[in-house]
Design brief:
Number of helices: 10
Strand order of the largest sheet: 6-7-8-3-9-10-12-11
Distance between the termini: 30 Å
Structural class: alpha/beta
Number of strands: 12
Largest sheet: 8 strands, mixed
Order of helices and strands: EEEHEEHEHHHHEHEHEEHHEE
Strand content: 15-25%
Length: 368
């Protein structure tokens, strides 16, 4: 799923500007060590659109998601959500402006659900916390959400361990939707599932986006998946954004050398571009361009001048002194297969108003 139109779904639901999240790793004075997990990230997510966030392990993807939803307090920078600055929000304001309207779907549904709570209790818990409805209204809402994600409402009396992995992830999605959010941060939501179940969950997310006008930040390491479900893709490396581009453009004509490396992984083995060495430590990032120590086209000035993320074409931004110089091998004929069963459409959702309940999707028949 891809589109060059970045404004079709209206104004951004979320904007982050120069966002940073650093962690102190101990020590005092000059010996104090700091892990720069996120270091100056700027991005925005349009209403009804999916922004894919990709990068190697340790690039800072998950930290970005947790900082945007304010599980982490930003070290610096700003976050605007639905027109409000939530960078320093706390207490009641954080619950009102963020917790009810932004939700997270985690990677492992087995660990994100309390094994001692029945499914109905787990789903109703956010409603209780936010004081939404009475007991009867909450039971009705729980049933609606279960039907919405393809589960029978009678399963509300079961415990998480009685469900398959895919069914548990559907409950995780229902819980994220229970307070009627506008933005879902999905952190590797299919990584722990079987391939056939992955396709079901991805298709469910696509159906929900079209029906409810949801915006997604989809964090994943699966390049084939992100290419087909995202409207735009942001590429991270060592805490910084290397490139932000429409999905299809990123994989056919990447501008940053690191993006080119990732896109080449879709080609036959002999045409892939393999960077030298290992990813450096975020506690001691390279000077200048953080990718320069592994970049095939790095020059001397790449070590002394940090390239800013700048727009080089409509809808395309890149942090590189030599954008577009490293190119894919056009003689490559083979590509990796597309994700099986994924049916996201090419157009973003445009609805902004959402009803309390919508029609259900077909019930799941997943095996444990």
């Amino acid at each position: 799923m891809s589109t060059e139109n970045t404004t079709a779904a209206g104004e951004p639901v979320l904007r982050a500007h120069d966002l940073a999240k650093h962690f102190s790793m101990g020590g005092f004075g000059r010996s104090r060590k700091v892990l720069r997990a996120v270091d100056g990230v700027s991005l925005e997510i349009g209403r009804g659109q999916t922004l894919g966030l990709v990068g190697e392990s340790g690039s800072g993807k998950t930290t970005v998601g947790r900082t945007l939803i304010r599980l982490y307090r930003p070290t610096s920078g700003t976050v605007e959500f639905e027109g409000r600055d939530i960078t320093t929000s706390s207490g009641n304001r954080l619950r009102r402006d963020v917790r009810r309207r932004m939700a997270m779907v985690f990677q492992n549904p087995s660990t994100s659900l309390n094994p001692y709570l029945r499914l109905g209790e787990a789903l109703a818990e956010p409603l209780v916390v936010h004081g939404i409805g009475n007991a009867a209204e909450r039971r009705t809402r729980v049933g609606e959400m279960m039907e919405l994600v393809g589960l029978d409402a009678s399963m509300a009396q079961r415990y998480p361990q009685e469900l398959s992995g895919g069914q548990r992830q559907r409950i995780g999605i229902a819980r994220a939707l229970i307070t009627d959010p506008s933005l879902i941060i999905a952190d590797e939501p299919t990584a722990s599932l079987d391939v056939s179940v992955q396709a079901q969950i991805v298709n469910l997310l696509g159906d929900l986006q079209r029906e409810l006008g949801l915006a997604y930040l989809f964090i994943t390491h699966d390049l084939a998946l992100v290419r087909h479900i995202s409207h735009r893709v942001a590429v991270m490396y060592l805490g910084r954004l290397m490139e932000v581009s429409p999905a299809e453009s990123l994989f056919t004509e990447p501008l940053h050398p690191y993006s080119t490396v990732l896109a080449s992984m879709h080609q036959e083995r002999e045409h892939r571009i393999v960077p030298r060495g290992d990813i450096p430590s975020p506690m001691t990032p390279p000077s200048g361009c953080v990718f320069r120590t592994r970049c095939p086209i790095a020059r001397e000035h790449c070590a002394t001048q940090t390239p800013p993320l700048r727009e080089v074409a409509p809808g395309r931004s890149v942090a590189c002194h030599h954008p577009g110089e490293l190119k894919l091998d056009r003689s490559a004929s083979g590509v990796r297969p597309e994700p099986v069963g994924v049916t996201f459409t090419d157009e973003p959702a445009t609805r902004q108003a959402r009803p309390v309940s919508v029609g259900s999707v077909p019930h799941t028949s997943e095996e444990k």
